[in-house]
Amino acid sequence: MRTPLIVGNWKMHGLRAEARALAAAVCAGVQGLGGREVAVAPPFTALTTVREVLLDSPVALAAQNMHWEERGAFTGEVSPLMLQEVGCRFVILGHSERRQYFGESDAMVKQKVHAALAHDLVPIVCVGETLNEREAGQTLEVVSGQVRRALLELDPPAIRRVVVAYEPVWAIGTGRVATPQQAQEVHGWIRKLLRETVGEVAAEVRILYGGSVKPDNIDELMKEPDIDGALVGGASLDAQAFVRIARFLPANDLE
After folding, report:
1. C-alpha distances in angstroms, 119 versus 28, 47, 158?
2. Which one of 18, 68, 132, 182 is least enclosed by Cβ atoms within 10 Å?
3. What are the residue numbers of the active site?
4. Which range marks the domain in which residue 139 is found?
5. Treating both helix axes as pointing N-terminal to C-terminal, what angle do 106-118 and 139-151 enclose, rounded to 10 degrees?
6. What are the pLDDT digits (tens) for 156-187?
7. What is the pLDDT of residue 172?
8. Per residue in 71-110, pLDDT tens?
9. Do residues 91 and 67 touch, judged by C-beta distance below 8 A?
């Protein structure tokens, strides 16, 4: 069984006092909730503050990005050793905003994935197509290319430790969301692609959906067989909304 995973990506939001309050509210809201994992990814400046709040809670700490080198002359970057030191368990890699605004390539994402695994961080590897690519019927081609270039040199034990997040770019922050059927089609395709390469280990890989995930659509999304959780953007900045997402039905029945 794949344990569902709900991750809140706070992006460039949250001064330390705001981050502390939001983390505390999330921790209180998911207390006693079983049958899934929950994590939050604050901005770098709030990682230490949020870590203090998360201690002795069921919520894990995630980072939003990292460099692939341990140290060096890389002004403005953060290394896997730094993320380890502040207590991160997960790191989001290859988010479409990183690709779009900062020129991250599949080759760079691949280097980051390998570095994360080498430092006992769980990479959450983002893939997804633009609206133009979807309308041109290129969704599976684009997503397949991103998955292949980032992951398919990994051996089965390494693949087992990776989380994939399918985030259609046209649904991020737009209020538009892929239907559960559209999301399942791509999630199923990703799992099939992994299975063809690494065999039955693909059945253990968690594939999250991201893109305007909200309390009113999470239950339907989570009914699909290959959707194993969510990477939540805007709704993760509202503790009540994020907690409701983490308490998706029918998983509430596990309490």
Report:
1. 30, 18, 12
2. 132
3. 95, 167
4. 5-87+97-254
5. 40
6. 999 999 999 999 988 877 777 789 999 999 99
7. 77
8. 999 999 999 999 999 999 999 999 999 999 999 999 999 9
9. no
Which of 123, 74, 109, 229 has the alpha carbon at shortest distance from 167? 229
The one-letter amino acid code at 170 reads W
The token pair at 254 is 């596990």
Sign of CA dihedral 73, 76, 81, 86: positive
Q: What is the SS3 string spanning 212-237?
A: CCCCCCHHHHCCCCCCCEEEECHHHH
CATH at 57: 3.20.20.70
Q: Is residue 13 part of a domain?
A: yes
Per 3-state DSSP, the chain is made up of helix, strand and coil in percentages (nearest 5) of 50, 15, 35
Number of domains observed in the structure of the chain:
1
pTM for the full predicted model:
0.95
In DSSP notation, 115-183 reads HHHHTT-EEEEEE---HHHHHTT-HHHHHHHHHHHHHTTS-HHHHTT-EEEE--GGGTTSS----HHHH
- Per the domain annotation, does 221 fall within a domain? yes
pLDDT tens digit sequence for 187-239: 999 999 999 989 999 999 999 999 889 999 999 999 999 999 999 999 999 99
User: Which of 146, 149, 165 is CA-nearest to residue 205?
Assistant: 165
- Going 41 to 46 to 47 to 49, the CA torsion angle's sign is negative
Amino acid occupying residue 91:
V
Structure tokens at 231: 């990477």
